[in-house]
Amino acid sequence: MPRIVFVGPPGSGKGTQAAILAKAQGLAHLSTGDLLREAVAAGTPRGQQARSYMEAGRLVPDDLVLQILSERIAAPDAQHGFVLDGYPRNLAQAEALARITPLDAVIAFELSFPELEARLSGRRVCPVCHTVYNIVTKPPATPGVCDREGATLVQRPDDQPAAIRTRLSVYAEETAPLLRYYQDRRLLRTLDARGSAPDVAARLARLLR
Ligand code: AP5
């Protein structure tokens, strides 16, 4: 039962690759970012608490994210293996995760700062089905319109330049120390996240063999 964690800076392609890998291997895709955005959109108390942190590009408080993750990881589809994308993001979260589940591999996504910025500023999302596009690398057939839903694509509030800068510095300060943590536990494998999504997916599959 593969239990895989993706760690990487914002825009490095974790969500894109988690979706591909989960589909290919029949794993559950657990994304704390998606779960939090759903809570915000639904206007739940947790969503209301998380909203301002997310829009500013800061981390949502650990206890709130842990509650959301604990519920999701206990769901039936996660009992046959999962790809966890976006958790943990600091050492306290890594220790909380170790108390919930053992892990088989932690994949560290690597991409240069200019490429991260370009991918994030080009991202557009369907507000209905949440399909992720990119105006440069994955444009919809009709500019600005979702291929599936016909809805007008939107930009995530945290893909504005100021929030992008905050997210990248939060990653460097709080999340990057996890690489050493998982290296010490012999779980870390490094993924070169450059190139097209299918190229990265092929590289990832080789890394997990
Ligand atoms: P989250 O949603 O997890 O955001 P993130 O980690 O910043 O990652 P992104 O979703 O921005 O990027 P990605 O690496 O998934 O890239 P993607 O595949 O989309 O978290 C959002 C917020 O929620 C946080 O800031 C925080 O506030 C809160 N949060 C979440 N988890 C938390 C936690 N554990 N604790 C506390 N707070 C938490 O790709 C990006 C773009 O590039 C897309 O347009 C895509 O089409 C394109 N692209 C992808 N791959 C390629 C490729 N190979 N070539 C070209 N383009 C590509």
Walk me through the structure.
It is built from nine helices and seven strands. The mean pLDDT is 97. By secondary structure, it is an alpha/beta fold. The protein has a five-stranded parallel beta sheet, with helices on both faces. A two-stranded antiparallel ribbon has the order 5-6. Helix 1 (14-25) packs across helix 9 (197-208) and helix 2 (32-42) crosses helix 3. It has helices at 14-25, 32-42, 45-56, 62-73, 91-100, 113-122, 161-175, 177-184, 197-208, and strands spanning 3-7, 28-31, 82-85, 105-110, 123-125, 132-134, 188-192. The protein binds BIS(adenosine)-5'-pentaphosphate (AP5).
Q: Give a count of the beta strands, DSSP E runs of length 2 or more.
A: 7
Q: Identify the bound ligands.
A: BIS(adenosine)-5'-pentaphosphate
Order of helices and strands: EHEHHHEHEHEEHHEH
Relevant CATH superfamily: P-loop containing nucleotide triphosphate hydrolases
Distance between the termini: 13 Å
Describe the sheet with the most strands.
5 strands, parallel
Short description:
The chain has 209 residues and is an alpha/beta fold. It is built from 9 helices and 7 strands, in the order βαβαααβαβαββααβα. It is globular and about 45 Å long.
Secondary structure blueprint with pairings:
Blueprint: E1 3-7, H1 14-25, E2 28-31, H2 32-42, H3 45-56, H4 62-73, E3 82-85, H5 91-100, E4 105-110, H6 113-122, E5 123-125, E6 132-134, H7 161-175, H8 177-184, E7 188-192, H9 197-208
Parallel strand pairs: 1-3, 1-4, 2-3, 4-7
Antiparallel strand pairs: 5-6
Helix pairs in contact: 1-9, 2-3
Bound molecules: BIS(adenosine)-5'-pentaphosphate (AP5).
Residues 8, 10-16, 32-33, 36, 53-54, 57-60, 65, 86-87, 89, 93, 119-120, 122-123, 132, 134, 137-138, 158, 167, 195-197, 200 line the site of BIS(adenosine)-5'-pentaphosphate.
